[in-house]
Amino acid sequence: MAYDFDFAKVFAQFQYVKNTITSGDITMKGGQFGVSVPMGGGKVLASYGHTRSSGASDVKRHSWALGYDYELSKRTDVYAAYYSDKLTGLSRGDTFGVGIRTRF
Fold first, then answer.
1. How many other C-beta atoms can be found within 10 angstroms of the C-beta atom of residue 67?
2. For 75-81, which contacts have Cβ atoms below 8 Å and span 24 or more sequence positions?
3. In this structure, what DSSP letter does residue 73 have?
4. Is residue 49 over pLDDT 90?
5. What are the boundaries of each domain within the chain?
6. Could you tell me the superkingdom of the organism this chain comes from (predicted)?
7. What is the pLDDT of residues 81-103, one digit of tens each?
């Protein structure tokens, strides 16, 4: 689902997955929310997601991202983004990326 408020675009989704396997069923429920806000000739992008499994697996995952996308032309943009991901029982993973993208 997405909606454009003119000053910002918001995005949301929900998912439900059930795996039936011999070692025990696993059910996963997850949701994600994001926003894109025009700022300084580009867009600030933010997203948060949460997933929880139950049954044979009991794991939680929290992920969030923050980025900026700037269009150089109709077909080319540059971007920078940071992503953080935390899974139950594991240390947090962090990723940072920058790049240039061209569409053909």
1. 19
2. 75/102, 75/103, 75/104, 76/100, 76/101, 76/102, 76/103, 77/42, 77/101, 81/45
3. S
4. yes
5. 2-102
6. Eukaryota
7. 999 999 888 899 999 999 999 99
The model's confidence at residue 6, banded by pLDDT at 50, 70 and 90, is confident
Look up residue 87 and give its DSSP letter.
Answer: E
Q: How far apart are CA 30 and CA 99, in angstroms?
A: 29
Place of tokens 């150089």: 72
3-state DSSP call for residue 40? Answer: coil
Answer whether 0.85 is exceeded by the pTM: no
Residue 71 CA, distance from chain mean position: 21
3-state secondary structure of 4: strand
Express each pLDDT in 53-85 by its tens digit.
887 778 899 999 999 999 999 999 999 999 999
Instruction: State which H helix or E strand residue 78 sits in.
Output: strand 76-87
Contact predicate 84/65, CB 8 Å: yes
